[in-house]
Every structure is written in structure tokens, then in C-alpha cells.
Amino acid sequence: MDGALVFGSSISSAELRRHAASRRHDTVVTALADAPSLARICTEMRERWEIDVTLRRETIFFEARDLDTCLIRQTAGTHIERRMTGADDAAAARALAMNLTLCRQGFAFGVRRGVLVLHRYVAPWESFETCMTAVREFFVVSERIKRAVMAI
To answer: Which domain of life is it from (predicted)?
Structure first.
């Protein structure tokens, strides 16, 4: 992956998962009793942060304060997304240029169906509390990242 990644390029969610897994190559993967499930994440988001979330077809949907659509899915880990519909071409270029730095923090930008999307991946062996911390950090960090990307 390192050889194929160039400054300003996009990274797929599959590559992001592989990168996260490679950072944990010495970790023994075990089934955790408190592994995160979408229903449990949904319930905790409502109770802890009073967020209006909807669980539909194995996906959690919710809105950020600025009405960006966010979602959480589980496909070999927990995948968190924020879709930034208001991003123009200049904002998308700034966002994609940030990928190398963001990847080190577990984030990556991509473009899906013409919409700029910020991704975060949580490995399947992480505990429920680690997953919830990652979701909370995603809220906070994605707000900052969006302000930086959308700045004129």
C-alpha cells in the first residue's frame, strides 16, 4: 500500500482496513464478549449523547449538526462515514490532499457518487468501549476536518 499511495490520492475503505490491520499484525484476534453490535451502538448513542439515530438494514443513520449525513456499518469491523454534500471541487482537492496525514489517524477521504466522504474504520477485535470512543472521536475530529476542508 505504501508504494501505491501518492500525495493527494484517495484511499479505499478496503485499503484503510488493510492498513489498520497491518498496524496490529502482532495482535492475537480473539472474539470479545463485549464486541460491538449495531443495535448496541445505536442504543448507546441515544443514551450517552442523546443523538437521534436510525437503525435500518444493518446501517445506523444520523445527522451531524450541519446536517451532513453520517452512517455506521459493520463489515469486518466498524465503518463510520460522514458525507459532505456541500463540498465543491476545491474542497474535494484539499480533502484528498489530507489523506496521507489522516490515514495515520485512522481517517481517509474518498469520493462516492460525486459526494466527498470522510471514513473511519475500527478493527473487529476492538472492544465495545474502544468502538464507542472511536465514534465519539469521529464526531469531534470530522467537524474540525470539515472546517479545514471547507475553508475559503
So the answer is: Bacteria
